[in-house]
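Just wondering, does anyone understand these tokens?
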Amino acid sequence: MVILRLSRSLRRGCVALPLVAALLAPTAAVGDERPVPEHLFGSAIRTMPTQEKVVALTFNAAWNDEGLDAVLSVLREEKASATFFPTGDFAERLPDAVRRIAAAGHGLGNHSHTHPHFGSLTPAGRAAEVNAADDAVRVAAGTEPLPFFRFPYGDTTPTQIAEVNSLGYADIEWTTDTNGYLGPAGGMTVEKVVDRALAALTPGEIIQMHVGQGTGQGPVLDADALPEIIDAVRARGYEIVDLRTLLTAPAAPAVTQQRDAGVLMPALVPWDSASAAMRSGPGLPLRLW
């Protein structure tokens, strides 16, 4: 896989000029070591492309971190991995929360800086949102963010996806949102959260949850429901897989995954020392694409 690099200032300017951006290959900033996931470009990824019975857990982080300790504790106890999509604003306000996610070995994506409706912004404004969030997550985590972007509100269009791709990001959305963020005031319960996760169960399902509660009041239902979701998914013969398996090139042969009591990590995609430390045990094949 070829990794092209341009200065961050040039990289940010590309999306502001759509005609120029269309002529440039996706790039990463100077010093970036992350691959450019071109095989994931061109559309939103809402389900992992696999026939294996695997599920990826993802959490957005924008309002607060009230449920984060519980989420990280459950993931640790259950030997399960997850990918977190913080906003840049969240990373700036709560850098310790982002560091704790990274230290636990979980992946960190990009959920924009201020969580606006992207359709209301200019191309330059959208690029600024993506890059500002990248900077904030990078500083808070002290590690390389993933080349995964999730649009605020799921507000995507082909043009906006192409713009994000030109910045070196794949658009990673979700198969189902548990709606746990609505809380009891929004009519949700732990049982309803679990039911929504299981109703969409399919090979490659991407479950979207949140580490906080939208109103800032009441329980964080996604955190409360997480143990039941993991147990129910596994009881149905599914594994919890790390979303970073998507970074494996589709042309490669079946990838040998490393498994440690339920944790699936991509053996060919070492990301950082924290995640690498989670890998051990016998290999388990996982066929993507």
Q: What stands out?
A: Residues 1-31, 251-289 have pLDDT under 50 and may be disordered.
